Amino acid sequence: MALFRPENRTKSQRNRRIYAIYEIAYTLVDFSAAFLFLIGSVLFFYKSLETPAIWCFVIGSVFFALKPTLRVIREFQYLAEGDWEDLAERAER
Questions:
Q1: Sign of the CA dihedral 30, 32, 37, 41?
Q2: Residue 1 binned pLDDT confidence (cut-offs 50, 70, 90)
Q3: CA proximity to 5, closest of 63, 90, 64
Q4: 43 by DSSP, 3-state: which?
Q5: How far apart are CA 71 and CA 23, in angstroms?
Q6: Quick check: is 6 in a domain?
Q7: What pTM was estimated for this model as a whole?
Q8: Domain that holds residue 66
Q9: Distance of alpha carbon 2 from alpha carbon 58, whole angstroms
Q10: Is the per-residue pLDDT at 84 higher than 90?
Q11: Which of 3, 15, 34, 35 has the maximal Cβ count within 10 Å?
């Protein structure tokens, strides 16, 4: 099993479940980041709310950083579910 291969998500029922869970998490993170950036943008219209606006952008940026992190974690979870013997054989070739 190789990382970031589309067919990994359908190799087993367990992989399909992993894919679904991570897609939900990815979507929630995406919406959260977008929402925080939108709120931060509106807050910047008011000088008195500049500090909360900055915090919205910082927290939104953390959410955006979580997106690729979730994908990598999902791929390692697929790898953990995979057939290690096949991987060892391919590495020896």
A1: positive
A2: low
A3: 90
A4: helix
A5: 9
A6: no
A7: 0.75
A8: 14-92
A9: 34
A10: no
A11: 15
